[in-house]
Design a protein that fits this description.
Shape: elongated
Order of helices and strands: HHEEHHHHHEHEEHH
Strand content: 5-15%
Helix content: 25-40%
Number of strands: 5
Structural class: alpha+beta
Number of helices: 10
Strand order of the largest sheet: 3-4-5
Length: 198
């Protein structure tokens, strides 16, 4: 019977809970993996996935596109410092967006991505799932597949006494099925040799 130890990935990519979400996303996508265990001081404290990152990004507020409480440009202190056809002074924009989160100068200095990048400010600890699905190495692949299906998860950690030994994903199980590693031949009348009369 095929066990998790037979198909698990032993060289597991892990991330720190202090890693920024941007760095975590770049790591996962560059390695073409959809998630990783979160390890702090040698102990597994959670799991982060691209789904976790997408869900966090979907619920986070974006940069405001307009300021609803201002109707007249001349209400700003710096509005009178430029004439039509000229560029407004930088201070005008700082005042315009002073309530939009990070300081405008900091946001404008950011050369990577959007002006205000939430993924730089948040860490893996804020998006990870602290519920860790883990099974021992001698668990059958069939049982692990059932656990993963019931929990609607795509990876399960292989652990013994709190130590991370490996990782099994739905892809590992699919590969095992495709390679016929889960197929058993059952003979109703005994062995194949007995059937041939040997």
């Amino acid at each position: 019977m095929l066990r998790l130890q037979d198909i698990m990935t032993r060289d597991v990519v892990t991330v720190s809970p202090e890693l920024s979400l941007r760095d975590a996303m770049e790591l996962l996508t560059s390695l073409h993996i959809s998630g990783a265990p979160v390890v702090s001081r040698g102990k597994v404290v959670g799991v982060i996935s691209l789904t976790d990152l997408a869900e966090l990004a979907a619920t986070a507020p974006g940069v405001p596109t307009q300021r609803s409480d201002v109707t007249q440009l001349d209400e700003f202190e710096y509005a009178s410092e430029w004439r039509d056809g000229e560029e407004p002074p930088a201070a005008y924009f700082a005042e315009l967006w002073e309530d939009a989160g990070a300081d405008v100068v900091e946001r404008m200095a950011e050369s990577m991505g959007p002006v205000w990048n939430m993924l730089e400010e948040l860490t893996v600890a804020e998006a990870m799932s602290s519920k860790v699905a883990a099974l021992p190495a001698d668990t059958t692949v069939e049982h692990a597949a059932e656990v993963m299906r019931r929990a609607s998860i795509h990876r399960i950690l292989v652990m013994e006494n709190g130590h991370l030994l490996g990782l099994v994903t739905t892809t590992d199980i699919t590969d095992a099925v495709a390679d016929h590693l889960l197929t058993r031949q059952v003979y109703v009348f005994g062995s194949r040799a007995a059937e041939r009369g040997a």
